[in-house]
TrEMBL record:
Annotated Gene3D superfamilies: P-loop containing nucleotide triphosphate hydrolases (3.40.50.300)
UniProt source species: Oryzihumus leptocrescens
Pfam families the UniProt entry points to: ABC_tran
Xref: PROSITE patterns: ABC_TRANSPORTER_1, ABC_TRANSPORTER_2
CDD domains for the chain: ABC_MJ0796_LolCDE_FtsE (cd03255)
Keyword Nucleotide-binding: yes
Source species, domain of life: Bacteria
Entries under PANTHER family matching the protein: IMPORT ATP-BINDING PROTEIN
Keywords carried by this UniProt record: ATP-binding, Nucleotide-binding, Transport
Ranges of residues in domain ABC transporter: 15-236
Protein's UniProt name: Putative ABC transport system ATP-binding protein
An annotated GO cellular component: membrane protein complex
InterPro entries: AAA+_ATPase (IPR003593), ABC_transporter-like_ATP-bd (IPR003439), ABC_transporter-like_CS (IPR017871), ABC_transpr_LolD-like (IPR015854), MacB-like_ATP-bd (IPR017911), P-loop_NTPase (IPR027417)
């Protein structure tokens, strides 16, 4: 498999958040602070788990890092880029450099596995053969012989493997995984976590994974706890 482009490294830190806050306005006029003055440095090439109960702010944190959502205040720096100061176009470019994996696999039902993996590259110029890259990735996630199958012909664990291959197709240095094992039985979850850890080790990808499950978080290099939008002050 072609190695991922590593996230540009600043003193070994891939992702840096300073005083990051996000408050949502609810329909009844009240507000809810989902990120409350977060300071966090995530090591380049490391596998970090963000753990906390439902509603604690895990997805919000990943969405802020991935620029799916915008903080009200604070700065987020990824590699050399201060994401929070980017304009619309640069933000879209930034998002396209990140791999996302979600609890629901979000594969396109009508497309073969190969075409699902290639999908993020549609309309983009790339310096490699996209079919070859997709085949290599499907091989790497153990589905090399299933490239012509449709998602409906796969188990949940296999679909998540395809979603991981798709997340890696552009060679991201940063992979954000939001409850990637939430829809899987514990055996299959273990296989997916081993796959993520292996990709992280082999390609130096920085992985940030949100989970409510401490046993899933244990598979990461580092565990960061969040509650009510605040990071646990205990050093992780
Ligand atoms: N777009 C939104 N509008 C309003 N409130 C939101 C929005 N997104 C998240 N929230 C609220 O922010 C808080 C944190 O949500 P978030 O999804 O980050 O938590 P979580 O830890 O990922 O939860 P879960 O484990 O259940 O997915 C929750 O109270 C949630 O209801």
């Amino acid at each position: 498999m072609t190695p991922s482009a590593p996230t540009p490294v600043r003193d070994g830190v891939a992702v840096s958040l300073r005083s990051v806050s996000k408050t949502y306005r609810l329909g009844d006029g009240s507000t809810l602070t989902a990120a409350d003055g977060i300071d966090l440095d995530l090591g380049a090439g490391r596998f970090t788990a963000v753990v906390g109960p439902s509603g604690s702010g895990k997805s919000t944190l990943l969405h802020l890092i991935g620029a799916i959502d915008e903080p009200d205040s604070g700065t987020i720096t990824v590699g050399e880029q201060e994401v929070t100061s980017l304009g619309r176009r640069a933000l879209a470019d930034y998002r396209s450099t990140i791999g996302f994996v979600f609890q629901q696999f979000h594969l396109i039902p009508a497309l073969t596995l190969l075409d699902n993996v290639i999908a993020p590259l549609v309309g983009r110029r790339v310096a490699f053969d996209r079919h070859e890259r997709a085949r290599e990735l499907l091989e790497a996630v153990g589905l090399g012989d299933r490239h012509a199958s449709l998602p409906s012909q796969l188990s949940g664990g296999q679909q998540q493997r395809v979603a991981i291959a798709r997340a890696l197709v552009a060679g991201p240095g940063l992979l954000l995984a939001d409850e990637p094992t939430g829809n899987l039985d514990s055996h299959t979850a273990g296989e997916i976590l081993a796959l993520l850890a292996n990709l992280q080790r082999t390609h130096g990808t920085t992985v940030v994974m949100a989970t409510h499950d401490p046993s899933v978080a244990d598979r990461a290099d580092r565990v960061v706890a969040i509650r009510d939008g605040r990071l646990d002050p205990a050093p992780a």
